[in-house]
Write a structure and sequence with these properties.
The chain is mainly alpha-helical and 461 residues long. The protein has helices spanning 17-28, 41-46, 49-65, 77-88, 101-116, 146-156, 193-206, 211-214, 227-232, 237-245, 257-279, 301-312, 318-330, 335-348, 353-363, 369-380, 395-402, 407-412, 445-460; strands spanning 3-7, 33-39, 70-74, 92-95, 120-123. It folds into 3 domains: 3-125, HUPs (Rossmann fold, 3-Layer(aba) Sandwich), CATH 3.40.50; 128-161 and 194-278, Serine Threonine Protein Phosphatase 5, Tetratricopeptide repeat; 294-460, DNA Cyclobutane Dipyrimidine Photolyase, subunit A, domain 3, CATH 1.10.579.10. It has a 5-stranded parallel beta sheet with strand order 3-2-1-4-5, sandwiched between helices. Helix 1 links the parallel strand 1 (3-7) and strand 2. The mean pLDDT is 94.
Length: 461
Amino acid sequence: MPTVLWFRRDLRLSDHPALVAAVTQARADDDEVLALYVTDPVLWRVAGPPRLAYLAATLEALDEALGGRLVVRHGDPVEVVPAVAREVGARHVHVTAATEPFGRRRDEAVAAALARAGAELVPTGSPYAVAPGRLATGAGEEFKVFTPFRRAWLAHGWHAPAPRPRSVPWAALASQGVPRPPAGDVRLPPAGEAAHRARWHRFLEGGLAGYADRRDRPDLEGTSSMSIPLKWGELHPRTLLADLAAVPVGGRGEPAREDVDGYRSELAWREFHADVLWHRPGSRTRSLRDVVPEDAWDSGPDADARFDAWAEGRTGYPLVDAGMRQMRTVGWMHNRVRMVTASFLVKDLHLPWQRGAALFMERLVDGDVPQNQLNWQWVAGTGRDAAPYFRVFNPVVQGEKFDPDGDYVRRWVPELREVSGRAVHRPWDLGLVAPEGYPAPVVDHARERERALADHARARA
């Protein structure tokens, strides 16, 4: 009777505690491990073509790593997982513990269904170095501020990466196959554990040095793009943290301490947001704080038209448009530009953050509920340890500061490719030689900033 390993957000074979537990169980039973993935129609419906196409690609990479033994079934996991367990006579289904609200509810239902079938759901590990909900303040409460959370996270520490089991006896079973949805015009990165491990090591060797200075520059290759494998579990954060701890620092050509510490802090932010969502599951759709009156948000046809202009990258603000077009083209956007585009939607267009968060989740290959929703709340000033609402990103100043030569904008906005230097961030100043085909600004930033601050003042009053 094989032991089932149900893959979800852990599409890898290294540093996989649930896999270790499944192999240990199978060896104790002198049997095999059945590798299962279930395509849930609920999740399939809400994801856009880039995310689904990438999922298909990484499942194919996992199947290849398993020697063609990945069993893919389609349907509601509450029905499919117990059915597979009955089909092979499995008494144990091993999983990486879910931490987001939907996954926790799903696993409770699956566990109950398995129990009725005489089997057990066995959760081991989580997608995080420190499982959400494990850390608490000295008063025993949840953390509401990032810096003390990071201190507690570092002090708590994490396990060493789990060793990859050797000679796993993978069971064979009929598979319904991986669906192949079209990605449209999106250019997806290589998928799978091996591809991202190679990319990570290239970053450690050539990209980590100078990270603290370059990570905010969208015109440079200054980030690791590890948000994608972390979202899908192609790599575990423990693996990244262990590799960071082994990096020599301070020598000639080596990363500086602030480079390593800065990257580690980005991982800590990821874990902080997962912890917030664990304690406040409603933050997926609801603001944790009210920072403007309800009537501050625009609605109606004009608001919808401005949202469409933002979504299509035709706001007339080059950095905003470049970011939205980058996301539409490659399913990813530089983090600094994510903040600028989000601020523009909320504080220049006066539209609720939930609309933007939904579009990002649809288009981003690395769209991850706690990171996406809580980062949007950070920009909107409504979340835990968020940027204050009165911090309004100026899209022109941000472009001039972080894309000083305009290379990022010219890469993604072809209408502006003939504009040289930083002038690309102010095309309206070109007068009679304004680029043909590029729109005028949909709003006046200075005026909308004043409105946003006035709305915030009304809420405070």
